[in-house]
Specification:
Length: 293
Amino acid sequence: MDNELFEYSAIVDRDPIEWPGGARVAFYVGLNIEHYELGRPSTSIFPGTAALVPDPLNYGWRDYGPRVGFWRVLDALDRHGIRASVLLNSDVARHYPRIIEAGRERNWAWLAHGKNNSILQPEVAAADERAYLTEVITTIEQATGTRPRGWMGPALSESPRTPELLAELGLGYVLDWTNDDQPYRLRVPGLLSVPYSVELNDNTLFLGTGLTGPDFVGIVRDQLDRLYEDSAGSGRVMALALHPFVIGQAFRAGYLDRALDYIAGHPGVWLTTSDDIADHFARTAAAADRVPG
């Protein structure tokens, strides 16, 4: 199929982006708060048992996140004054309300992230997708007190109709297309793509490549340093994707603290949320478009 969702754009040809306060890099934490069904194969650390029902090995590994790992991540974010952009499965509202309570106390940003991470978006029947998305968004709104303004599909999945339906339901941006260091407009009116990362992502780094904690800190530092260098003429976005069942393990959590310490202490960094990035870009880019040429 041809890509009809967005156009090609070389980053060197765009109008400059200016972030608030003269910042050069807008940084946010994409915190994945997810629920996995017991009877479906899902993200696994040991594929050999992934098809079993139940699968205590892999389910228990994932379940460590909401039970233990999340609270370590929470402490690190609090220490550095960082509000999370929560990629929230709506099933979390029923299974882990204590986590939502903690996020509400901190005024976190809440993005819709599907019903759970065992059901990918293309698995939702086309005739039912609007009803499915409506239920997901409404459940999150009722649980958090905030209607989601952004979306990231489970495993960054979309159907061909998902963006259009999200815009019709009042959402303003998606994170699924990880192809840029800046926000950009999609062809769906009113909908943006905001940068997210499958590489600067604890799941990919630790599980996909087997890196160590010191490796993780070095990669985060290198990412910020290069984006800062690149942003001399136009702002960039740095997203750090985290999963509590990965980064929240006891032997890794301290390295997250070190990485966040470097980011929070770096000059020219706007510690923000994906919501605020989308809002600022939509407002300032629209104003620029109105300036007579």
